[in-house]
Amino acid sequence: MVTVIIHVSNEDPVLGELDNLPSPIDNIVALKNPRKKDGKDIKTLEANVSIVIYPIAKVNYIEVVSSESEEQIITFVRE
Questions:
Q1: Domain ranges for the chain
Q2: Which fold would CATH assign to domain 2-65?
Q3: 26-30, long-range: CB within 8 Å, 24+ apart, which pairs?
Q4: Which of 27, 45, 53, 72 could be joined to 49 by an S-S link, Cβ 3.0–4.6 Å?
Q5: CA nearest 33: which of 15, 56, 53, 11?
Q6: What is the pTM assigned to this prediction?
Q7: How would you write the pLDDT of the chain (79 residues) with one tens digit per residue?
């Protein structure tokens, strides 16, 4: 799963998970566990919603959030 922030036209950004990043031929984006960037629930969704499907035409852009386990610290040491 990939954690992403989806920016939909005329709405606040939504944080959630995707199984795979959308390909160029996809028409929709199915976002699992949708929430605000601060982790709070989205007021326009019911409490028991677990997947939201957005049409790709309404998505401005998608930010991919790297997890802490994926990050590598690269340092240069001069001797």
A1: 2-65
A2: SH3 type barrels. (2.30.30)
A3: 26/56, 27/55, 27/56, 28/53, 28/54, 28/55, 28/56, 29/53, 29/54, 29/56, 29/59, 29/62
A4: 45
A5: 15
A6: 0.78
A7: 899 999 999 999 999 999 999 999 999 999 999 999 888 888 888 888 999 999 999 999 999 988 665 455 555 666 5
